[in-house]
Hints:
This protein is an alpha/beta fold. The protein has helices at residues 12-23, 41-48, 66-79, 96-101, 125-134, 169-192; strands at 2-7, 29-35, 53-55, 84-87, 106-110, 138-145, 155-162, 196-199, 202-205. The protein has one domain: 3-Layer(aba) Sandwich (Rossmann fold), CATH 3.40.50.170.
Amino acid sequence: MRLSVFASGGGSNLGAILDAIDAGTLAASVAVVVTDREGIGALERAAARGIPREVVTPEAQDYASGARFADALLDVLARYDTHAIALAGYLKRIPPEVVAAFRHRILNVHPSLLPAFGGAGMYGKHVHRAVLDYGARFSGATVHFVDTEFDTGPVVLQDTVPVHADDTPEALAARVLAVEHQVFPRALALLADGRLSLDGRLVRILPVASSQ
Length: 212
C-alpha cells in the first residue's frame, strides 16, 4: 500500500508509521509527505529518510478557492500513485473532492476518545485541556475513517489512558501520544491487509485470511 502522509507539526506519528514499516508490521511504503506549512518537523523527518515532500498551503493565492485546493491535493496524490492517506496530525479539513476520491481509504488519528472532545478547533493542547476541565477519568486516542466533517467518521480503533488528578495538559498529551503511536500503525496495517469492513457506521475487523 502506497501511503501519502499528511502532517502539520513535528511528525511523531509519521515516525511511528515508518517504524512499523521498518519492523515489517505495516505492509506499506510512504510515497510522499504532504504538509500545509514550511519548516515543520514532519518535513525534516521525511527529508532524513529521502521521502518526497510537498507543501500545499490552502491559503496560498493560487488555491484561493476550495476547489483549487482540492485539485492541487488530488494532483499530488495522483503523481505519487497514492493508494491511501494517513492524517498524522494534519490540521486542515480534507476537501470533499478528496474524501470522495479516496472513500474509506483515509484514516485520521485524534487525541481523545471520540465522539468526546472532537470537532473544529479541538486539536493538540486544546483537547487535553478540555478533557481536564471536564473532569474525565479516561482519555485516549481514536483512529477513524475520514468524512467531510472534523472527527465524525466511523471509528476503527481506540485505546485509553487514565487521567490523573494532578495532570497537566502536557503530561496527559505525552501519555495519549504514546498510545497514538501504537494504534495508528495498527489501524493502517488493517487497512493495508484489507481487513476493515464498514457496516453502516460500524467498522468490522475481518479475520486474517487462511493461507490454505
